[in-house]
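Researcher: Go.
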Amino acid sequence: MTSSCEEVPWVSILTPVANGWEYLEECARSIFSQVRAASDEDGPRVTWEWCVGINGHGLTGGEAMKMAEQIQRSLFVEEYGISMKVVNLPEVKGKVGALHALVGLSKGEWIALLDCDDKWAPHKLILQKIAVDSIAKEAGVIGTLCWYFGDWESEGPSLPSGWVPPAAFKEMNPIINSSAIMKREYALWTDEWWGLDDYELWLRLRSEGVKFYNIPLRLVYHRIHAASAFNSSGKQDVKGLISKYFKEEEC
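Model: Structure:
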């Protein structure tokens, strides 16, 4: 189902929805509140579409699909002409498959990522557009810093600001997933590394010479779940992933 404008957007926002669909309305409000233009009349403007993919919820999409369609039918969407696409993906397995399906539905020059339980500060996209047009013209991926919220609240991890040094990638994942925008041609993930699909993509792009930039502001709220199994499942091999993209003598 689609609610759309004919204008080709500057950025397509991709949100795969498996778990955490109960936070989708909060996520939506942060998208709908994005500032679309700089204060200068001749300054940058942002146009965007939001592509939501429901997977893992059966042939009907279940309650997750109902929530997404309710948001799509909202007066806010109609009043402001927001382009929002909602699709059920019952045959698609995993986040990587859902992301690739959403890329195929999207039209934007840039691709933005936003998990359904995270949210953005209102100036997030316009500041990234300003960066693309000025200080970070050579960047293929642009992120921001983040806040942690949810089951506990704090400043997010200490990440490189400005241009991200290539060596930083073997110390940490320096790009917050829900903060990232990337050029469309770079939006190709692999599910070889369980739960590390974004980190693997950044490492691969870095190895191909893509430049990364982090806006030195906390423009993303990344939800923390106390019961999350992230990094405790035993299925993630961070060291193995890093060693794949760095020479042995560098590790």
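Model: The chain has one domain: 2-227+235-246.
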